[in-house]
Amino acid sequence: MKHEICRVADIPRTGSMVVPFFGREVHVWRSSERIRAAANACLHFGGPLDCKDGAFVCQWHGAKFDMESGERLEGPAPKGSRLMFLSTRVEDGALNYFWGE
Ligand code: FES
């Protein structure tokens, strides 16, 4: 099954954009040659993330995550934790979330 997240043309060249997703939010961004999408939820207590200086930074207690790998860089989120990436594919100019395949 699939669900359209956004149009690829709408994704900014730098930084990220926040898109509604089943009553929650995801960040969508361009990482090297790939387009990535991850839940806008910190791995500490679920706080929202800002895209700031090339990383995601939690608004609540400052945990920082790498935009390429999603790995925690610093802050109170568990060591070794990683942002929740969505499984996505580009089709007909749209970024889609796929599940159940
Ligand atoms: S909820 Fe993100 S650092 Fe605490």
UniProtKB/TrEMBL annotation:
Record's keyword annotation contains Iron-sulfur: yes
Pfam families: Rieske
Residues of the signal peptide: none
PROSITE patterns found in the cross-reference section: RIESKE
Rieske domain boundaries: 3-97
Top-level taxon: Bacteria
InterPro entries recorded: Rieske_2Fe-2S (IPR017941), Rieske_2Fe-2S_sf (IPR036922)
Protein keywords: 2Fe-2S, Iron, Iron-sulfur, Metal-binding
Name recorded for this polypeptide: Rieske (2Fe-2S) protein
